[in-house]
Amino acid sequence: MHSNAAFDTSGAVTVESGEVMIDGPNGIALSLTPRAAREMGRRLIAAADRAAGQGTMPDGAQEDCG
Amino acid sequence: MASETSKATRGELAAQFLKLRCRDTVSDEEERALEHACSGFREAKPKEVLVHERRPQTQSHLLLEGIVARQSTLSDGRRQIVALHVPGDFVDLHSFLVQSLEHDVVALTPVRIAIFPHAGLRAITETHPHLARMLWLSTLLDAALHREWVLTVGRRTAKERVAHLLCELHARMRVVERTTGNSYQLPLSQTDIADACGLTNVHVNRVLRRLREAGLARFRTKIVEILDPEGLAAAAEFDPFYLHLGGFPR
Fold first, then answer.
1. What distance lies between CA A35 and its chain's CA centroid?
2. Range of the domain at A35
3. Strand partners, B115
4. How far is A31 from chain B (nearest CA, A)?
5. Of A16, A19, A26, the CB nearest to B155
6. I want to staple B160 with a disulfide (CB 3.0 to 4.6 A). Which of B93, B155, B156, B167 is the partner?
C-alpha cells in the first residue's frame, strides 16, 4: 500500500466517555467533542461530494485544502 | 530548585554501566573515568524542569532513579513528549556539544540524577577514546529512538502506539535490570502516556482497557504487566532492532 495515496477505507468511529474517537486509517488517532465531531462530519460529507464530482486527479495535482 | 548533594556511592552509576556493557565491554579504568567525571548528585520532584530549553548548559545529567521526559510545547500549551528516559540514560548528553537544548527536560516522577560537568566529559573525549565513542553511541541510541517515535506518531494506530511504548520500555528497563519477569514499574500518569503517544487521556484509557481485555498487557497501580509478550509485540509491530542491544567492539 502506498502511504502517500488517499485511503480507500474509513477509520473506525467509536464513543468513549463523551468523546468521539476516530482510529485509522493509517496513523490517525483522534478524539473529538460531540460538537466538533458533528461539524467535522458535515464538512466531510460536503467535501466527499465535491471530491466525487472531480474524478481522479492527474499525477502531481493537488487540491487546495485551504 | 532541586537539592544537590554528593553523598551517593559510586555504585549508583551501575545502571549506566549496565547500559554500556550491553553494547560493548567497559573496562574498570573507563568506569573509574566516568565516576571521576561525576561532580555530584541531585534530586528533583515530579514536574520539575531539570533543563530549560534555550538556556546554555555547562553540565549533563545521568538519570539514576525515576522517569524523565524531553518535551516540547506549542504556544497554546499543547505538549508533546518527544522522549522518555529510564535509569541509566543520559537525559541531555547532547548539551555537551549543542550547549542549549531545543526542548525542556522534565522529571515525571521523583528522580535522582548524577551531574557531569562538560569539562569532565571533554576530558574523557581526550583521554579515553573508547569511552568517548560509547557516550557518542548513547546519543546515537537517542536518535534511533526518535526515529522510531516519528514512525509511531506518524503511522501507528492508537493501539499500536501504546502497545509499542509498553514493549519498548520493557526492553529498555530490562537492560538496566528494572524488570521482574514481564513486569516493570511505570509511575506515569495516563496524561504522560497520552502526550508521549499523541493521544488524549480518554483514548489512552480505552486502549489500555482493550489491551487488558485482549489479554496482552495490564497497567495498573503504576505497574505494567505484559501478559502476552509475543502478542503485544505483534500488536505493536515492535521489533527491538532499533534499540541496538547487541554487544560488539565499538
1. 17
2. 12-53
3. B40, B61
4. 7
5. A26
6. B156
| Domain B3-143, CATH | 2.60.120.10
Question: A33 touching B, CB under 8 A?
Answer: no
For residue A23, tell me if it sits in a domain: yes
Q: What are the domain boundaries of chain B?
A: 3-143, 151-243
Read off the pLDDT of residues B227-243 as tens digits, 9 standing for 90 and up.
Answer: 999 999 999 999 999 99
Position B1 scores a pLDDT of: 45
pLDDT tens digits, B197-212: 999 999 999 999 999 9
Helix (H, G, I), strand (E, B) or coil at B183: strand
pLDDT at A65 > cutoff 50: no
A66 inside domain: no
Within-domain flag for A7: no
Query: Which amino acid is it at B208?
Result: L
A17 CB within 8 Å of a chain B CB: yes
Asked if residue A26 belongs to a domain, the reply is yes
Residue A11 Cα, gap to closest chain B Cα (Å) = 10
Q: What is the pLDDT of residue A59?
A: 55
Residues in chain A: 66
CB pairs under 8 A between A and B: 39
The more confident residue out of B199 and A59 is B199
* Closest to B68 measured CA to CA, from B78, B51, B34: B51
Please give the pLDDT value at position B16: 85
SS3 call for B57: coil
Q: What is the pLDDT of residue B138?
A: 95
Tell whether the torsion through CA atoms of B130, B136, B140 and B142 is positive or negative: positive
Checking if the pLDDT of A61 tops 90, the result is no
Does the B151-243 domain belong in CATH 3.40.50.2300? no
Put simply, whether A26 touches B (Cβ < 8 Å) is: yes
